[in-house]
Amino acid sequence: MSTDAEQAHSPHSTPPPRPAHPPRTAPAQPSAPPPRPTAPPGFTPDPDTPILGVRAKVPFPRGTAGASGTRVPPRPSAPPRTGALFADGGLFADGGRGGRRRPPSRTAAAAASLVLGLGLLGGAAAGSWLGDDPDAPPSTADTYAHARSAWHSVPVDDLFPRTLRGKGEGPGGADRVWSRIAVAPDSSCGGGFDPLLAKALAPVGCKRLVRATYTDATSTSVTTVGLLITTSGPTGMRTLHQRFVTEKLDERTDLMPRAYAAKGTAAAGFGDDQRASWRIRILTDAPVVVYSVSGFADGRKVTDPQSAGEATQRGATSAPAQSGLGNDARGIADAIEPIFRRALSTITETTS
């Protein structure tokens, strides 16, 4: 039996164990995101449905039925998308530069505002197209269109009444009465005007010409009144009106309308040489030129014709002024114009 000392120095003895070092601690690794839940067998989820380019924020509600009628679990929400709100990079697109993303709440608010704005604009447009106010006045285009057909839609007695009364329209403010003695068949404008006047009116065109001739209570004067229906639009009529006013074309004796001398009437001898006074008005709210020309019923020639505007001025001493032919030309034209407007208004209301 060996002693404890011998066992300590024996070559075959086992050395004492070495002290263990403390274990090395590995650096903390970030925890991996939890795996995306997979769909249950036999279920194919619907693709995300964009609403104006923005995915729905609220997932498919729990417990609702899918396309097959089975109850499906909720779908996990996807992270917000970046880039253009519209797939085609249109309005509100950020150009795909990967810039700062909008919070989902602001994106949804912007989309909602856009939908609301488009809805309001669309509703306003639909209201203007489908719900026109029946009491609203007709547009200029409607007025022009109806005026071009009024000449054959209005009875002759309504357009050219058998009797016209002019209160205070005679010389010195006397009342005048004119009686219709002839109505010309509707025609083109050929022969209705002196050549230079026809050239001046040419820019607005001629669709139709309607005329009638009146005489005064004593049958000593005759006056032809006419309505030239043009083919022009508002711009052309305004341009012509401005030219007549600026250049005073309605006062030139070489720009007079011609009379309608109906055979077998007091106007049978009413030719070019018998013209004494005239009036021309270019309307701008309708494609119409209203004019008149007056003369003596006995066929006498007039050497100093004068426009109605000049012949009705205070102190005028010309033959047209003293005989009242200027008053006849002005009074009859001014009476027919509102009659035509009323007829046009009636037609417009009837066809609207």
Automatic annotation (TrEMBL):
This is Uncharacterized protein. Residues 82-91 have a biased composition (Low complexity). Residues 304-325 have a biased composition (Polar residues). Residues 13-48 have a biased composition (Pro residues). Residues 1-104, 301-328 are annotated as: Disordered. It comes from Streptomyces violaceusniger (strain Tu 4113).
